[in-house]
Amino acid sequence: MISQDIPLIDLHRHIEGNIRISTILDLARQHNLFLPAWDEESLRPHVQVQSQQPGVMVFLEKFSVPMRMLVNLEACRRVAYEAVLDAAMEGIDYIELRFSPWFMAESHSLAPQGVVEAVLDGVQSGHDESGIQVKLLGILSRTYGPEVAMKELEAMLSFAEHIVGLDLAGDEANFPAELFERHFERARGVGWKATIHAGEAAGVESVWQSIKVLGAQRIGHGLAIVNDPALMDFLFERQIGIECNLTSNVQTSSVKNYPSHPMKTFLENGLCASINSDDPGISGIDLNYEYEVAAPKAGLTDAQIRQAQLNALESAFLTPREKQNLLKKKKTASS
Question: Most CB atoms within 10 A, among 57, 71, 139, 230?
């Protein structure tokens, strides 16, 4: 059950994984692009996970159709704008949206810097229209390698004041964190925070590297953390946040099922674990589903779900004053 006196927050949501099926159809018709089906229900199995997949990289194949729809910068702007409106419609009070400009640019060879500008514009329009508080995180895609990642970083640094943090996502098993040390040094230099996808497709060493080499203040997924008591202690002492994504972890077979997800263990050990949606368009869920359905399936008690909601506020990339204002506004609205 979502607590009404605490802000509802999503810290881990990809814009690329939040594209509406109706928008995919609309863009395909506008630009004469191929689709395997031409109505929402028939297209759904091609763009949304319908059953458990055998791994993260197979799960990511569902992105291929939506990414081909990003034919120009206006399309990039539109999906960013709609991602903000979708979050507002879910009743989310604060969201951190993340995106990889290179990934969005790739299908139609768009200029990554132009993609960043388009996303910023779309997010601002969505905020202006809905009033929801939004901050943006840039992603470096490991899968392209460190050289392309540096170009991706350059595109984002041109708009450094509009981005609050940097993430590293993609093929964790084959592209370790140490390859991207220089990138995160530069990000720290402009005052960005760091959140890293780690411990999902690789083991605890990936998480240790993310913290010690890249300076991660939050970890995305972090499933392997449960296997290392010393790492659990380290995260507890420093209150490094863990962005848990219950449904997507089941769908990628990163965990066997909801009851085997380590989030309950994280919370029992006082770790700053939060509930997030990851890729709602691909997973066919929203944040409410994660709280109302996935969290109870994972064995979380009402008290633990409430704590996860508080943890999201605690580990958000907000200033203490912004957190205080968000909490005050929510308590006023719920009273």
Answer: 139
Query: Six-digit token pair at 253?
Result: 């077979």
Helix 181-189 × helix 146-157 angle, to 10°: 10
Q: Catalytic site residues?
A: 200
Question: Cα 112 to the chain's mean position, in Å?
Answer: 19
Contact criterion met (CB below 8 Å) for 97 and 124: no
- Interatomic CA distance for residues 2 and 17, integer angstroms: 23
Calpha distance 300→278 (Å, rounded): 19
Residues, the chain: 335
Q: Judge contact between 10 and 87, C-beta under 8 A.
A: yes
User: Which pLDDT band holds residue 202 (cuts at 50, 70, 90)?
Assistant: confident
The alpha carbon of 85 is separated from its chain's Cα centroid by a whole number of angstroms, namely 16
Round to whole Å and give the CA distance between 298 and 192. 33
**Could you tell me if 157 and 186 are in contact, meaning their C-beta atoms sit under 8 angstroms apart?**
yes
Backbone angles phi, psi at 328, to 5 degrees: -65, -45
For 49-102, the pLDDT digits (tens) are 988 887 887 888 899 999 999 999 999 999 999 999 999 999 999 999 999 999
pTM for the complete prediction? Answer: 0.97
Where does residue 72 rank: exposed (0-12), middle (13-18), buried (19+ CB within 10 A)? Answer: middle
Which fold would CATH assign to domain 9-334?
TIM Barrel (3.20.20)
Look at residues 175, 172, 185 and name the one whose alpha carbon lies nearest to residue 213. Answer: 185
Integer Cα distance of 124 and 128 in angstroms: 6
Q: Measure the CA dihedral 207/149/142/27, to 10°.
A: 130
Q: What residue spans define the domains of the chain? A: 9-334
Which residues lie across from 135 on neighbouring strands? 96
Opening angle at CA 51, ends 44 and 64, nearest 5: 50
- The tokens for 269 are 């050990």
User: Strand, coil or helix: what is 47?
Assistant: helix
Residues 261 and 254: their CA atoms lie apart, in Å, by: 9
